[in-house]
Amino acid sequence: MIEVSSNVRIYERNGEEFKTIDEIGVSSHTIFNDRVCLIWLDGSSVTVLAKDLIAAIQNATNTAK
Questions:
Q1: Is the pLDDT score of 65 beyond 80?
Q2: CB neighbours of 42 closer than 8 A, spacing ≥ 6?
Q3: How open is the CA angle 39-55-51, to the nearest 5 degrees?
């Protein structure tokens, strides 16, 4: 399986503007196509279902409708 990775820029931390340019990593799971790995600033990672992450983002950005 080919690994695919992307980065998401951090704009705020604890409600305050983030002073440095840091990113959270998002990469494909090495075994399961329906999961993604989120890599935090300290290098630790968590695995979540991609559909759950997509749904959470859509829900969180649906506040103005």
A1: no
A2: none
A3: 65
CA separation for the pair 53, 18 (Å, rounded)? 23
13-49 CB burial, b ≥16 within 10 A, e <16: eeeeeeeeeeeebbbbbeeeeebbbebeeeeeeeeee
Per-residue pLDDT tens for 11-23?
A: 998 888 887 889 9
Which residue segment(s) compose the domain that 42 sits in? 5-60
Residue ranges of the alpha helices (H) in 1-65?
A: 50-60
Residue 65 lies in a domain: no
Interatomic CA distance for residues 53 and 10, integer angstroms: 17
Number of domains in the chain: 1
